[in-house]
Prior knowledge:
The chain is of the alpha/beta class. The chain folds into two domains: 23-209, P-loop containing nucleotide triphosphate hydrolases (Rossmann fold, 3-Layer(aba) Sandwich), CATH 3.40.50.300; 213-306, Helicase, Ruva Protein, domain 3, CATH 1.10.8. Helix content is 48%, strand content 8%. A five-stranded parallel beta sheet has the order 2-3-4-1-5, with helices on both faces. Helix 4 runs parallel beside helix 5 and helix 12 (256-273) crosses helix 13. It starts with a helix and ends in a 43-residue tail after the last helix.
Amino acid sequence: MIAADALLSTAAANVVNSYVPVTERDKKLASEVDRLVQIALSRTESHGGTPPREAPGLLVVGASGAGKTTAIHHILGRHPRLKNFGVEGELCPMISFDAPAPTTLLQLGRELLRATGYPIMNDPKRHIVWEMVRDRLRLTGVVAIHIDEFHNVTRTANSIERDQILATLKSLLNDRHWPVALLLSGLPEVVDFVNADPQVARRMRAISFSRLVAPVDVPFVGKIVVKLTSKATCPCPGGFSEEIAPRLIHAADGSLGILVEIIVEAIGHALRRAEPLCIQHFEDAYALRTACSRSVNPFAAEEWETIEVTRLLATTPQKEPAPGKPPRGGRKA
Length: 333
């Protein structure tokens, strides 16, 4: 029994730790990240030459669950020139942190200081924090910064704070003594924030993580199912992977990250029951995620395309009107 549990744990870990690349998108992202890193590092390796006056920027946007963070960290963690990326207590020329919520210029500066390994023991004023940020970046050799969840800025900062944050980021990019490259990632609304300052937008390149759609992405999703089941040594009947793909795409609302999570959870059910992967395992995985009734489970319902999959505890295919409100297109009795 212990040996069986160990095998199950190993198989599950193999699946969870698997990275699923989207060939063209990941190639483009890897290329843009490499460009950003190489240009940023050239600032410290000019050997008496003329370093770039401005650092590059990269904007990566996509819906929640699209796989942005996973893809970025996968690429950064394997970049040959970013040794020690993500290793606590070790120096690396690129650091990463999440934009806090709520976001102010002061809070953003404090989080950036923490990302450089600097412990904040008191409550310094905003201008002091940003002076410390610039000193720490030079002292630790940081030439590139990844700020994830950047939509927290657009959602929680007021208009004055947003303008101040934008101006500060611009000053990092074109600092005369130590320009710092920026990789910003978040929801699509971040695009409007960056476009609000043409000077910042000019310095940025952009990549959008689009949603998966059927039938175009069915073969790709089928390959993901096959790859993950093989990692877990979980039997998958021939043809099943592409048969389940359209329902998977709909259940995940087109988000690659959520889609992979559902597959991993379904494989977990199959492994625990020592069964070949089947649609029942996906039905159970989705039910556990959403606590929905079987009639609105995309892996159980016949008319699964009509199900609104963004709700928890759902009992009907479409969103019910709020109490006291008539259905869309209807009239209150």
